[in-house]
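Practice problem: Glycerate kinase
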Amino acid sequence: MSGQDARGARGTDGPGAARVGEPAEQAAEVPARLRVLIAPDSFGNTLDAVAAADRIAAGWSAVRPDDVLELAPQSDGGPGFVDVLASAFGTRRVLTVPGPLGDPTPAEYLVDGGTAYIECAQACGLHLLPDGPTEDTAMAASSRGVGELIADAVRCGATRVVVGLGGSSCTDAGFGIAETFGGFAGAARALSGIELVAATDVEHPLLGPHGAAEVFGPQKGASLDLVTALEERNEAVASAWWEATGRSVAHLPGAGAAGGIGAALLALGATRESGADVIAAATGQDAKLDEAGLVLTGEGRFDAQSLRGKVVTALAARAARHGCPTWVLAGQVAVTRAEADAAGVGELFSLVDRAGSVERAMTEAAPQLEGLAAEVAQRWSAMVETPSGRE
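Answer key — structure tokens:
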């Protein structure tokens, strides 16, 4: 979006503009300037969080150009984790690592002082599978590239490594990470003095009916028979981690994140933190909420998973503590009004409803989201308008 900085606040001091459909001669009154925190997650594979924030800002500004917009794209630790943080601080480091199938893959992580922020999807993400997920890739995909990112960060002096978990193509319980360091015991020795953080909002354990293979295996191309094989392999890898570290982590919350990379990190002594909270702390979200009069957030699909502490509802809960309303723009909305109320979410808007189909909402995601944001701005103006025509 030309001339607009996705990392800071912006607004204009020019005259007010007419709302869509309003005659220009009726636009002499200037509405009060509202400070809006625009903080979406990514919209699946159609828009990353930074692009989504930019489009929402463009749509809102077209209707309410005098408002001050603070762009703060979000992530729960999955794809976009590094980009979101890099929009606020740090230095990117780029290197080539093995991708999920072993092919050389460019990946980057963020360095801020002695802390390295790594996004596992950079090295083993589903989007790195050239032909998409299949039975073969579900079994073959490895976390080795993630291990190489961690190893590089440590070699470069990092004493704290935060690993964002999500969007992976592998279900190997961190076996590839162990390979990077010459085995499970080698990984334990190499990382014994490093503060590790597993950044994820996924609460699933490694094993069992709610574990990595059972829940996420099918999304990665696994059939029912292969899910069983992956579960058995994860059991063996979990045992190897236990033998090397003395930590039994297979049934801990978050161990199933990113195909079991969560289990590997926990076995290596990591603490688990909400990915959304890591972003909030690192980007000064509380201070921004103190000043905001409205939060606009969103994601690809607002559904039951969203209600379990993911980015949108975590942000809504934090905003409510600051007395700030939260409105959600999502690709699809699949929750009831009562569920949204319980999560602290105000108005809900669906990109699919506006576009008329899922296909159009995805293929035209950017202009559709910008148009939806303009409509949302109109709705806000209508709701706060007084009989005098001023806010």
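Discussion: The radius of gyration is 22 Å. Students who identified this feature from the tokens alone can consider the problem solved.
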